[in-house]
Design brief:
A four-stranded parallel β-sheet has the order 2-1-3-4, covered by helices on one side. The chain is built from 13 helices and four strands. 32% of the residues are buried. The protein is α/β, with parallel strands linked by helices and 300 residues long. The protein has helices spanning 15-25, 47-52, 60-63, 84-94, 108-112, 118-127, 140-152, 158-164, 185-199, 207-218, 225-238, 249-263, 278-287; strands spanning 5-8, 55-58, 73-78, 173-178. Helix content is 44%, strand content 7%. Residues 296-300 have low confidence and may be disordered. It has a domain at 5-79 and 166-218.
Length: 300
């Protein structure tokens, strides 16, 4: 059996960060303190590091079950449905170090026409056949609607479905690592302590580790995006008139999905600019929104 330890994860759940952190602070191999990319990913790895590392992160579940048959220990990063907004945002921004920004409605084709998102681009064209495929940009209202369905029913969300496909050999010992651990240092410590027992090694909880974690967090602009949306939803439900700030595309999709689930009313499709106040949203729901009908899921 392979003495190395696999880390399996869905894109956007920080598998490479976990790999490099464990290898560095378990004292397996030296890593330059500036190994973060300009986007904050942990993809900068020297040949020496690759040779010496004990923990090996990859999207093993996408490569087929045979990729894991030789690992007797596997760490599997798992997220909950409540994490989907954050995971989606991080994944889109950082997959393959492409730096896809939140303004996906600008030069959409250039941003999605790659090995990570080509299939998503085709799904959008299939779901909305009226789109002119010669145009580089896809309207924001189309993208907002497309991504809405995965937030409305998490079981249909592409990233959730990928996680559901993660399966492991019965002969392997599995440790499940909570995605939320990465965002709270106290919880992260406890999760790493479980890894200590799992591999029977001592982790170096030194100041460099805590500085390393702070730097990791500084690269993630979406840590409070769900809380911001949930507050907007609460304002709408309570009839509190508050401005709605500029939101990311995924936040707009998340809001529409949850509002449709709450009110069973269909949020607008032909809307170039999103609502700017909670009062406007509630007015639309009460006076204009049609009752929610079955809409085919376009994230499939």
């Amino acid at each position: 059996m392979n003495s190395k330890i696999a880390i399996d994860f869905v894109a956007g759940t920080h598998g490479h960060f976990l790999e490099t952190t464990l290898n560095k602070f378990f004292g397996i191999t030296a890593i330059d303190s500036n190994f973060f990319t300009t986007l904050g990913t942990s993809h900068v790895k020297s040949k020496q590091y690759q040779t010496q590392k004990l923990f090996c992160a990859s999207h093993y579940h996408e490569l087929g079950p045979q990729q894991l048959t030789n690992f007797d220990k596997i760490i599997s990063i798992r997220f909950s449905p409540d994490d989907l907004l954050l995971v989606s945002s991080v994944s889109l921004l950082r997959s393959g170090d492409l730096g896809i920004d939140e303004d996906l409605d600008v030069n959409t084709v250039d941003k999605l026409k790659n090995r990570f998102y080509q299939s998503v681009l085709q799904q959008i064209y299939t779901a909305y056949p009226f789109l002119d495929q010669s145009h580089q940009s896809i309207p924001r209202y189309v993208l907002r609607e497309f991504y809405k369905f995965g937030f409305r029913d998490h079981k249909s969300h592409g990233l959730w479905r990928k996680q559901q496909s993660m399966a492991y050999p019965v002969s392997s010992e599995i440790l499940y690592f909570d995605f939320n651990s990465f965002y709270n240092i106290d919880i992260l410590e406890k999760s790493i302590q479980k890894v200590e027992k799992f591999v029977n090694k001592k982790f170096l909880f030194v100041q460099d580790f805590y500085d390393h974690h702070k730097k990791f967090l500084s690269f993630i602009p979406y840590t409070n995006c769900k809380e911001q949306c949930d507050q907007i939803i609460q304002n709408i439900q309570q009839g509190v008139d508050m401005p709605i700030p500029k939101l990311s595309l995924f936040q707009e999709s998340y809001l529409n999905a949850n509002l449709e689930n709450i009110y069973q009313k269909e949020m607008p499709f032909w809307q170039d600019i999103y609502f700017t106040s909670s009062k406007d949203v509630l007015h639309y729901i009460k006076t204009c929104a049609p009752s929610l009908r079955h809409i085919p899921n376009t994230w499939a």
